[in-house]
Specification:
This protein is of the alpha+beta class. The protein contains 33 helices and 22 strands. The two termini are about 25 Å apart. About 55% of the residues are buried.
Length: about 950
């Protein structure tokens, strides 16, 4: 538990604190503290009842308050009494702790820190007010708050500093429903983690040696976990004051004394939609994706605004309020950091792994660092031997003296920087799939298996009709019917059955990137060093439960004038003919590049990062922090807005890593918008609904999970359904605790406002589309909330943390296909001759360049790594704030226990030799749905939120 201190600056990521806190410890004279309390009684607001007094040593403390801390929720609670309502005058002590951060020492040299340290010395740095949940019986007005300055009482070896404030609570004050906190520092913001209220008794054995109450075992506490900005406006100014509520209440059940606080806190978080946001703000507002382009810097970096139009529909992101571009008034300038509300920032531990500096500076600087070692940024790898040596010898970087700050951060973020007298090397770990089977990327069986147990298990779908048909306009894109015929497929199936029988028996499956990509083919081809096709890839379910890869169709639509070339398409199949065999390998590389783009832009970015941000904004604008649903969802929003803001800075922006390294190039985000328009709908985001939508499962109430899988050995779905069920049961139990019937759901004004804003504003471009459920019963509410939790946690984990192990060896999943098929008409005779002469080299030239490959490897390594401060699904460290509720506590304990049980089930499945899609020679076990993980690159672990 800590109250973290750092300076308020324009850069929210720079942490500093009180280096002189230890000097103030124990040196604050009692008469100064008393004088401060006495003088403040004349200057503070007249509603003050009792100000802080000097600490009386030798007093035993017991805790009072309103909400169990996460620690007390995990232990046996002692017998409790009604300690928040005082029957007679009683002394109460509020206990808080602060943690001096890494930057604290240097920050103490600033003049403003000297002022803050003096305030600590005289006990005027933290001002607390206790709020009664009851109105005054005589006046019908809010009762005066009880006010006191907190003074520093302890500073331990872990840089944790404790503050305490005393209150004399009069009889009849009632329940402590909230605490108001004012940060009286001049320039230092505080991260307030919790406030404990303790009541002294006559004994002294439970007190600290210095008389502080910090050592008292907390029975109850108010969990805060929030930054409090400095009150630079002086006494009476609202800046720097925060309210922290003690218990969860539905709006209609809010105690009368807390209603105005509830309302005002929400209004503060909404803001007025005007002005440029500052790093210390806690305002949540919407905007379109209008900052991806940078026309002021380069005309080639102009990009369309995503969201707010029929042409480019998109979810909304957080408004920053930066000035608009002079060259494109629809585009926001990109000066400074992308604002997110202060509480959405990374922790210090997270900053060390992935922050504004690491993403924008380190990764962007890594590109020229690698380029400086090469002759040509488009240079391909000269041999597969050289590719393999990446994991043995690494990538040579410039001399150490030329690396500057990169030398200090590369080891942490881009694997290990290996020093030697001669050079520095960026060394990549060997991905697990290469460790298991170095040549697995060549095998059709592994290609097929990874559609069920790889990094994009959301793409494969059942073939329900044959022939395969496009929904695009044939007048523009050519014949709707696929060139994949029954004869081709039946030959590849060995004539074991007809295609009609295979469709009827649900044994044909497909990766369909035809209609999504085809409209972008010519746009993408207009760029240098990349190409594109629409593609269809067909599989057959064999008798042993594995998939057989049958055929790939690549299509180029007719090109517009002046070239006006007709449509070209061709079907490729496995072959014993050497030329056809090499063409087959190249066709697979194109499909893998299509799948990589779909994975990164649609399954990963759009469906987890992008689509979740409106839920976060709406929840903070419409659900009070004392709302039970806010408590449920809040852990699943951790870091998402910050990671999305960083993505807009360096990943998905014009000239960013996605455009540099993935096939769609500058049209990547347009393609993501098209996918949102055509494919995304809320009611298909839960796992069972997604499986049914793709034909991979059918509704079956008699089955364990309510659906029956079409492919029995579908590792992602098998394990994912276990996790989905655990989430849904936990959410159902939580909702039942607060909503006994439909009337309670329908009558919750905040809940209904939250959901209406998600639909009408956050996802406003699809507000009239089908798929939005009504929140009108406990069941519909629980299902919607479980869907949000699933997407933010397990869905994201399934498509994120396996990226390096499946795509770190890029021939297995190239991010880009740079050259056309050598047989594409009109045939380039020179390219065809070169292919025939050296097909190995032709394939490598199709792969990403050396710069692209090493950049993507570094990024995937980073994105696949768990942070040291990660919080995992069902982990007891994030037990609900309402943990003093026995029913909620029991349900969450069952959730935690079930997830641990699921881990054992997954381990058993991975050892079952009958399950050929997850167990066997050279096969990477499927662990992405194992809930818990340590830090690092593990290919397992489900964080609570989309946090990286």
């Amino acid at each position: 538990m800590a109250l973290l201190i750092k300076p308020s600056t324009n850069t929210a990521q720079t942490c500093c604190g009180c280096s002189s806190a230890s000097a103030a410890r124990g040196s604050s004279p009692l008469f100064l503290l008393a004088a401060a309390a006495s003088s403040s009684s004349l200057s503070r607001r007249p509603s003050s009842v009792q100000l802080g007094r000097p600490r009386r040593r030798g007093k035993k403390k017991i805790v009072v308050g309103c909400v169990a801390s996460s620690k007390s929720a995990r232990s046996e609670a002692p017998s409790r009494r009604d300690s928040s309502a005082m029957a007679a005058d009683q002394r109460v002590t509020a206990v808080a702790t602060i943690k001096v951060t890494v930057g604290g020492f240097l920050n103490s040299l600033r003049p403003s820190r000297a002022i803050d340290n003096f305030k600590d010395l005289i006990g005027r740095s933290l001002y607390l007010e206790l709020v009664s949940s009851q109105l005054d019986a005589k006046t019908g007005q809010e009762k005066p708050t009880l006010r006191s300055y907190a003074h520093q009482v302890a500073d331990n070896d872990d840089d944790v500093v404790t503050y305490e404030a005393d209150f004399d609570v009069p009889a009849g004050f009632g329940d402590v429903g909230a605490v108001l906190v004012t940060n009286e520092h001049h320039s230092t913001e505080m991260f307030l983690q919790d406030i404990k209220l303790v009541v002294p008794s006559s004994a002294s054995d439970d007190s600290d040696d210095d008389g502080s109450a910090a050592a008292a075992s907390p029975l109850l506490a108010i969990r805060c976990n929030s930054w409090v900005e400095p009150n630079s406006g002086g006494d009476g100014d609202a800046a720097g004051k925060r309210v922290f509520f003690a218990k969860p209440y539905l709006p209609s059940q809010t105690p009368a004394g807390l209603r105005s606080y509830r309302k005002e806190d929400l209004e503060e978080k909404r803001g007025d939609g005007r002005g440029q946001r500052k790093s210390g703000d806690r305002i949540y507002d919407y905007d379109t994706y209008n900052d991806l382009g940078d026309p002021d810097n380069n005309a080639d970096k102009a990009r369309p605004v995503l969201g707010g139009s029929k042409q480019f529909p998109y979810p909304r992101c957080c408004r920053t309020g930066r000035p608009m571009s002079t060259k494109d008034p629809k585009t926001e300038t990109r000066k400074g950091d992308n604002y997110v509300p202060r509480d959405e920032a990374f922790s210090e531990e997270k900053q060390l792994q992935f922050s504004v500096t690491t993403l924008q500076s380190v990764l962007q600087a890594a590109v020229p660092a690698v380029q400086s070692t090469l002759i040509d940024p488009n240079l391909s790898f000269p041999s597969f031997f050289v590719i393999d040596k990446l994991f043995e010898d690494g990538v040579k970087l410039p001399k150490a003296e030329d690396l500057g700050f990169l030398r200090g951060v590369l080891p942490r973020l881009l694997q290990r920087l290996r020093d030697s007298p001669a050079d520095n090397v960026l060394l990549f770990d060997t991905p697990k799939n290469v460790q298991k089977d170095k040549f697995g990327w060549l095998r059709d069986e592994e290609f097929a298996r990874e559609t069920l147990a790889g990094m994009n298990p959301y793409a494969i779908e059942l073939v329900r009709e044959f022939p395969l048909m496009s929904k695009l306009d044939p007048a523009v894109y050519g014949p709707a019917e696929s060139a994949i015929t029954a004869e081709i497929l039946e030959k590849q199936m060995g004539h074991v059955m007809t295609v009609a029988d295979a469709v009827k028996q649900k044994r044909l499956f497909m990766l369909d990137y035809h209609d999504l990509y085809l409209p972008y083919v010519h746009k993408i081809r207009a760029q240098e060093h990349t190409t594109m096709y629409g593609s269809r890839t067909v599989f057959f379910l064999t008798g042993d439960g594995t998939l057989q890869l049958l055929a790939i169709e690549l299509t180029r639509p007719a090109s517009p004038p002046p070239s006006a070339q007709p449509q070209w398409r061709r079907v490729f199949t496995p072959s014993t003919d050497t030329t056809e065999s090499w063409l087959w390998r190249m066709a697979k590389s194109h499909v893998r590049a299509h799948d990589s783009g779909h994975h990164e832009l649609v399954t990963h970015w759009l469906r987890t990062h992008c689509a979740v941000e409106p839920y976060i904004i709406a929840a903070n604008r419409q659900l009070s922090e004392m709302h039970p649903v806010y408590h449920l969802l809040h852990p699943h929003f951790r870091y998402t807005m910050r990671i999305n803001a960083l993505a807009r800075s360096a990943l998905i922006n014009a000239g960013g890593i996605i455009e540099l390294s993935f096939s769609p190039g500058k049209h990547a985000m347009e393609l993501s918008s098209a996918a949102y328009d055509k494919l995304w709908r809320f009611d298909a985001e839960s796992l069972p609904a997604d499986l049914v939508r793709r034909g991979m499962a059918e509704v079956d109430p008699t089955s364990e999970h309510g659906v029956k899988l079409v492919i029995e050995d579908y590792p992602f779905a098998n394990d994912g359904l276990l996790v989905w069920d655990a989430i849904e049961r936990w959410v159902e139990a939580y909702v039942a605790r607060f909503y006994p019937d439909a009337a309670a759901v329908a009558g919750d004004a905040e809940l209904q406002a939250f959901w209406a804003e998600v639909i009408e504003v956050g996802h406003g471009d699809k507000k009239d589309a089908p798929g939005w459920p009504e929140l009108d019963t406990p069941a519909s509410l629980a299902h919607a909330l479980a869907t949000i939790v699933w997407v933010a946690s397990a869905h994201h984990a399934a498509v994120n943390f396996g990226q390096y192990d499946f795509a770190g060896y890029f021939p297995n999943r190239p991010s880009i296909a740079r050259t056309r098929m050598p047989v594409e008409e009109p045939v380039d005779s020179e390219a065809l001759a070169a292919f025939v002469e050296d097909p190995d080299n032709a394939l490598r030239e199709c792969f990403p360049s050396q710069v692209q490959a090493t950049l993507v490897m570094a990024v995937l390594d980073l994105l696949s790594t768990h942070s040291p401060d990660e919080e995992y699904l069902g982990g007891m460290e994030t037990a609900p704030w309402s943990g003093d509720d026995a029913g909620v506590r029991a349900a969450y304990g069952e959730f935690n226990a079930r997830l641990k049980e699921i881990e054992g089930i997954i381990d058993g499945r991975n050892a079952d030799r009958r399950l050929k899609n997850r167990c066997g020679a050279g096969i990477v076990p499927y662990q992405l749905m194992k809930p818990f993980s340590g830090p690092g690159l593990t290919s397992k672990g489900i964080p609570n939120s989309t946090s990286i």
